[in-house]
Amino acid sequence: MKPLLINGDWVDGAHGVENINPSDKSDVIDLYAQAGVSDMQDAITAAQDAFKTWGFSTPQQRHDILKATGDEIMVRREEIGTLLSREEGKIRAEGIAETTRAAQIFHFFAGEALRLNGDVVPSVRPGVSVEITREPVGVVGIIAPWNFPIAIPAWKIAPAICYGNTVVFKPAELVPGCAWEIADILHRAGLPAGVLNLVMGQGSVVGQAMLDDPRVDAISFTGSQATGARVADACIKNMRKFQLEMGGKNPLVVLDDADLDVALDCAVNGAFFSTGQRCTASSRLVVTEGIHNRFVEALIDRLRALKVDNALKEGTDIGPVVDATQLAQDCDYIDVARAQGGNLRSGGARVARETDGFFLEPALITDTTPDMRINREEVFGPVASVIRVREYDEALHVANDTEFGLSAGICTTSLKFSSDFKRKSEAGMVMVNLPTAGVDYHVPFGGRKKSSYGSREQGSYAKEFFTIVKTAYTAP
Ligand code: UN1
């Protein structure tokens, strides 16, 4: 059984749960310890104690540990990437790419540890000087989702440690494997006891215990809107800092003047790669009428050529859905879309393969309208809908007609339309002739409206969340 990490010790929890491969339900990856409420409380105590020293550690020490962690992840990227695919179901190439991204994130924040600076400002009062510095926030709780089992933990843990915070990390229940590897690597890289605590377990038990504990100074959360709202309530109650990344209903606009191949690449990648299980997925394809039929027919041809199979099998393009609950949700949304008048033009059926997994053919639903549930609620699966519009202005309006605002894309060869879209899109991230998903690791990530709350993640902007500003005045 893979244990919890609390105060630098590996401890067995109350019991273990099996980590199951969604490509092959008979494949049990390992047993992972499950924490109870008292384990979470011990972890928070450990993080609080460790903060007394780690909060004053040198940038060199933080750099060296983050660098060593990035180095080991990079060297082991094939092995860890394979584990990732085995537990989450994205194809092996995607698993390795995500693991590489995690290594790059650790390297980026190793550098950032050495670059933290402040300001010295002349006071309005004679002889006085003012210093503005950034200090760590304290004990940071991290709640991560299952769809990026290593990249998202990396982009929360690396900046937390970089800026001198200590961490209580609750990974998603479905993907403890990569979380355990990160904890093990950081521990062996010399991270002092209590700086990172790994508390695996149920959200309703250990997640709740984290939210309820007033000793946690900040929480960084990625997950569903419903859980995000609960995190927000608990944080307000405790007057603590928080940052939420939640869902998306990201539009990809395709204009008449688009390069058809570019638009198809963006749609196939953005909507269906990683089995569509990305909050940045292009789930709404907003297409102007001059290109609509050509685009839809060519997209159907592309989708039929995709191989849906075991994530670890050579040649697979789309792996399984993550579990039975998610699969049922995907199928329900396809049914709802059809019942409301959508036309299921391709895929959407459960398929059997050599191994017993949660395989679903990528589904394309055409003739949908913006008010249908399929265009308002996040599905989080290999399901995309097409909305036909007359011209650019209507496309922009439809693109913004959503309570979400994470990512938005446009395929066009027009500078005028792309410039206008970049300015008027109500999303946190805008992509021109690129998929809405798949972002760089060194620039800010985050959305608007109900997709996100709080300051941006990633890149140097991460310090807004993981540090707190102090203003110090000195008279001679
Ligand atoms: C990406 O598209 O590269 O959960 C990252 C998600 C996002 C991460 C997307 N938080 O899908």
Outline the structure in words:
With 476 residues, the protein is an alpha/beta fold. The chain has 2 domains: 267 residues, Aldehyde Dehydrogenase, Chain A, domain 1 (3-Layer(aba) Sandwich), CATH 3.40.605.10; 182 residues, Aldehyde Dehydrogenase, Chain A, domain 2, CATH 3.40.309. It is 39% helix and 22% strand. The strands form 5 sheets. The protein has a 7-stranded mixed beta sheet, sandwiched between helices. Strands 9-8-7-10-11-19 form a 6-stranded mixed beta sheet, sandwiched between helices. Helix 6 links the parallel strand 8 and strand 9. Helix 1 crosses helix 7 and helix 2 packs antiparallel against helix 4. The longest helix has 24 residues. The mean pLDDT is 98. The site of 2-aminohexanedioic acid has 12 residues, from loops.
- Could you please say which CATH topology of the largest domain applies here? Aldehyde Dehydrogenase, Chain A, domain 1
Q: Going across the major beta sheet, what is the strand order? A: 14-15-16-13-12-17-18
**Structural class of the helix and strand makeup?**
alpha/beta
Name of the CATH first level of the largest domain: Alpha Beta
> What's the story with the biggest beta sheet?
7 strands, mixed
How many helical stretches? 14
Helix content: 25-40%
CATH architectural category of the largest domain: 3-Layer(aba) Sandwich
Number of E strands: 20
- Gyration radius (Cα, Å) is 23 Å
Strand content: 15-25%
Distance between the termini: 60 Å
Instruction: List unreliable stretches of 5+ residues.
Output: none
User: How many domains would you count in the coordinates?
Assistant: 2
- Integer average pLDDT: 98
Shape: globular
